Amino acid sequence: MDQLPHCETLLLEKQGPTLFITINRPDVRNAMSLQMVAELSTVFSQIQEDLHIRTVVIRGAGGHFCAGGDIKDMAGARGQKAAEGEADPFYRLNRAFGQMIQQVNESSKVVIAVTEGAVMGGGFGLACVSDIAIAGPSAKFGMPETSLGVIPAQIAPFVVERIGLTQARRLALLGLRIDANEACSLGIVHQTATSNAELEEMLAGALDRVRQCAPIATAETKALLHRVGHEPMSGLLDSAAEKFAEAIRGSEGTEGTMAFMQKRPPAWAESND
After folding, report:
1. Model-level pTM?
2. Is residue 86 over pLDDT 80?
């Protein structure tokens, strides 16, 4: 990607093979507006085929990750009436978020969520579709929708995939808010930091590990993992064997094998793209 798209709700910074996305609406605890949804979707679309970007780090400005949906957008949708033959404005609002979160979930990049402060509703869903999630000491997670008289329509399926039906029921049906340690025990996040310094160390360690792994092989592995449970196992394993043969005969497989035999880092581990 030669040029990062212009965004009003996001701060974008490319450092080597990593794209840092900072949700930048601190005055509303980074609540997710329709514009933010559209901008996130645009960014992920543009980087999908860019092999120079291997990792996307998502975090929030001002000490919060994302406090959920934007109340102003909700109020705006309430004031609209669907024209004949058009979908309900609330449907369009909700479904746009679902399409974006599915896009992040299926991205070819390694997505790392650095969660702090409020991680609620849509922000909770965004954390649940990350490949690696790290929580700071201030992080509070929750699905408060039922306590507000609505439902977690677009995030619930991803929460179930993340932590299983039993725990998702408890969180969603009681509208619970939990701390970082409980979020880690449930599998929402993978690591919890006790300080901001430790949080940055954990992030740096995760980014270093991504650099050790071949970018195409990583993307293919992520795609394979997402197919599990959605296809018959025999056919899935047939397809996986074909992908394995392609990988081992490809440039990354050749380089990885040679690097191992020559006891040196592979080329992708030294790349500063």
Report:
1. 0.94
2. no
Is 171 within a domain? yes
Helices (H), 228-270: 233-249, 251-261, 267-270
d(CA 36, CA 97): 9
Which sign does the torsion angle of CA 171, 176, 178, 182 carry? Answer: negative
- For 32, half-sphere exposure in the C-beta direction (CA atoms, 13 angstrom radius) is 27
CATH of the domain at 28: 3.90.226.10
Pairing of strands 132-135, 110-115: parallel
**Per-residue pLDDT at 84 exceeds 70:** no
Question: What was the pLDDT predicted at 140?
Answer: 98
Terminal alpha carbon distance of the chain:
11
Tell me the three-class secondary structure of 160-219, residue by residue.
Answer: HHHHCHHHHHHHHHHCCEEEHHHHHHHCCCCEECCCHHHHHHHHHHHHHHHHCCCHHHHH
23 lies in which domain range?
Answer: 10-211
205 and 224 in one domain? no
User: How far is it, in rounded angstroms, from Cα 73 to Cα 261?
Assistant: 57
- 51 and 39 belong to one structural domain: yes
- Do 232 and 145 fall within a single domain? no
For position 82, what pLDDT does the model report? 64
Pair 190, 254 in one domain? no
Residues 216-224: what's their mean pLDDT?
97
* Residue 77 confidence (pLDDT): 62
